């Protein structure tokens, strides 16, 4: 059974522009999918729809086999967590931020797990008593990821979460998440402009362009782009391997 699925999803935004029309796809547990598109095609919008942070114009979403209408939005978001590029820290300390989920759901705060996750994203030396607002952008991004992981979501909707990280931290985050996925602890949907990253972390690609979604294996996507739009996109990024324009 798919853990997350959408059928005939259409989204028209203010001003009347339709970003995508009747797109359908699903993700199995515990897959890792890269959502790729030229800028402005609706990647973040689609991710926000999948987190029930925005409503589709038409179409149906299902999580764990149950339609969105049958879920409380907060319960849905607890299972399918959206991790934003611009992370927002709650007022208070790093520890206060890390324990958000346990306070919200009245469950014990697993300090040991939090420490392990902080270490995995290269934040072992962070002072937990520090005001979270004083962290750098990249530190906030990683604390925000750890905060989400502590809620043990089944699906992580990752919106360019490594965009402000240096290479070392980026790879640390990728390693943590791919290990979780390999251990069947999480299904991942990554929005990324970084095609090297998409190739490293995913086994499938959803390519969004001209209002349609193409769904294919990651290696196939790079070797045999599924559409002219994908071919042009890879070509512009210098990644069309058939055209001999590069690649690892
Ligand atoms: N609520 C909204 N109201 C009006 N326009 C919107 C809204 N949400 C998104 N848009 C527009 O829809 C388009 C797609 O936005 P979105 O951020 O989803 O694209 P994207 O593929 O993630 O872009 P990028 O790669 O540049 O981050 C943009 O032109 C954006 O301005």
Automatic annotation (TrEMBL):
List the molecular function annotations (GO) for this entry.
Answer: ATP binding
The keyword ATP-binding is assigned to this record: yes
Q: Does the keyword RNA-binding apply?
A: no
Cross-referenced SMART domains: AAA
Q: Which UniProt keywords apply?
A: ATP-binding, Nucleotide-binding, Transport
Q: Where is the ABC transporter domain?
A: 4-234
PANTHER family assigned: ABC TRANSPORTER I FAMILY MEMBER 17
- Could you tell me what this protein is called? ATP-binding cassette domain-containing protein
Q: Which organism's genome codes for this protein?
A: Paenibacillus glycinis
């Amino acid at each position: 059974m798919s853990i997350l699925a959408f059928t005939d999803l259409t989204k028209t935004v203010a001003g009347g522009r339709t970003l995508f029309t009747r797109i359908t796809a699903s993700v199995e547990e515990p897959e890792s999918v890269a959502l790729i598109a030229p800028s402005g095609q609706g990647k973040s919008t689609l991710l926000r729809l999948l987190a029930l942070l925005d409503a589709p114009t038409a179409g149906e979403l299902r999580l764990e086999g149950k339609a969105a209408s049958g879920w409380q939005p907060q319960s849905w978001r607890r299972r399918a967590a959206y991790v934003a590029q611009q992370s927002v820290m709650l007022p208070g300390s790093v520890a206060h931020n890390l324990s958000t989920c346990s306070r919200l759901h009245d469950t014990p705060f697993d300090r040991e797990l939090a420490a392990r996750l902080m270490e995995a994203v290269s934040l072992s030396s962070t002072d937990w008593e520090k005001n979270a607002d004083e962290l750098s952008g990249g530190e906030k991004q990683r604390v925000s990821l750890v905060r989400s992981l502590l809620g043990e979501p089944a699906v992580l909707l990752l919106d360019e979460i490594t965009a402000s990280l240096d290479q070392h931290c980026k790879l640390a985050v990728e390693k943590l998440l791919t290990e979780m996925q390999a251990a069947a602890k999480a299904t991942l949907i990554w929005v990324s402009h970084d095609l090297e990253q998409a190739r490293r972390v995913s086994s499938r690609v959803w390519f969004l362009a001209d209002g349609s979604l193409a769904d294919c294996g990651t290696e196939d996507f790079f070797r045999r782009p599924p559409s002219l739009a994908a071919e042009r996109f890879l070509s512009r990024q210098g990644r069309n391997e058939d055209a001999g324009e590069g690649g690892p």
